[in-house]
Amino acid sequence: MRKNLLLLIIAVLLSMASIYAQGRTLDPCEEERNAVNDAKYTLDYVYAPNVRNAIEPAVNGIEAEVWGAFRGYFGKPYVPPTTLIDSVKGIRWALEAMWGDFNPYPFNNEELQILYDNCGIYLNGYEDLQEKEIALAECEDPCYHERKAAKDAEYAIDYVYASDVRNAIEPALNDPKKISIAYWDQFNTYPRPENSLLDSVNSHILTIEHWVSNLPDHPNESNLLILKELCIVYLSGVEDLQNKERALKECEDENGMSIHEIGNGLGSVTVYPNPTSGELRIESGKWKIKSVAIFDLYGRMQNVKFSIENRLDISHLPAGIYFVRISTEAGEVIKKVFKE
User: Fold this and answer.
1) What per-residue confidence (pLDDT) applies to 66?
2) What is the pLDDT of residues 34-63, one digit of tens each?
3) Across the beta sheet with 279-283, what order do the strands follow?
């Protein structure tokens, strides 16, 4: 009886050891996770006390000079931060400004040098921690880079390109009647309120392209040229965002279809061969194709023939990147093609 009990205890212990070992091997990011924890410990308990000990005696008595240099360097007053890392960055930037454009100041150079050196050590440790956290994020999320790139590109579109285009649209488009006429000549319909800035920019740049070519008496030519250039920059940025979002989507979805296409059931629409040197074929699945148009990178509609066999002859077009706009019963989809 005792022998059986002993064997049972040994079996349980071996099983627990096996489970523990498996549990350890189930974490493929263990090395990166440990590195992050070690770096955080070093930052919190090694670098941080040294920086704190250096800040008080070094900045004591020269706060006005430090904050004055910060305002001169950044054009805004220094706001006491909530974290030590913000404080270190702010003070170091101020010191660099003081030692540069705002020299000389009545401060203790030796103490400031100590502070500057300690700030450098601390910031280097912080950068090292960021690198380790990126490695951990990559280990846990195979789409980390694509996700970050998409987020960065979206920010640029919303806060860099978009604001420039919005600022140019109002003064440039001060003749709605002529805009409508040019739009009608281009699309055989009048412009309607757009759902998004991108749609608006697309409409305006195509209209302006037609306007410049066919209506030389339009007003504010310089403003319209500025708007056109900004629209091109904006659309290039949107294209870049779409590429990054597509890379992320492909990482998450092996079909690589956009959410918009899936939502409209247009994921089955394909254009091939791509790249091509002459003819494009369009497969639309169950959807009937209503119209097809092709544009170059500048939004100019190209003169091409679309056959009843759903074929598009672009052999006469110069080599480059083009966009095929396919209108179906379910909606529109745009495909990028490469002409060799």
Assistant:
1) 74
2) 999 999 999 889 888 888 887 777 777 677
3) 270-272, 279-283, 311-313, 305-306
Q: State the pLDDT at residue 41.
A: 92
DSSP type of residue 300:
P
Token pair recorded at residue 22:
């498996």
Q: What is the mean pLDDT of the chain?
A: 75
Q: How far is Cα 94 from Cα 62, in angstroms, rounded to an integer?
A: 12
Domains of the chain plus CATH, in order, are 30-140 (no CATH), 145-252 (no CATH), 259-339 (2.60.40.760)
Q: Bigger pLDDT: 114 or 22? A: 114
Q: What is the pLDDT of residue 257?
A: 42
- Letter for the amino acid at 6? L
CA neighbor of 161 nearest in space, from 78, 260, 234 = 234
- Which ranges in the chain belong to alpha helices (H)? 2-25, 30-42, 48-59, 63-74, 84-99, 109-140, 144-156, 162-172, 176-187, 197-214, 221-252, 259-264
Write the CB contacts of 78 (distance below 8 Å, at least 6 apart in sequence): 66, 67, 70, 71, 90, 94
Q: Please give the model's pTM, rounded to 2 decimal places.
A: 0.46
**DSSP-assigned beta bridge partners for residue 295:** 301, 323
Report the candidate in 84, 80, 82, 79 with the shortest Cα–Cα distance to residue 50.
84
244 contacts 148 by C-beta, under 8 angstroms: no
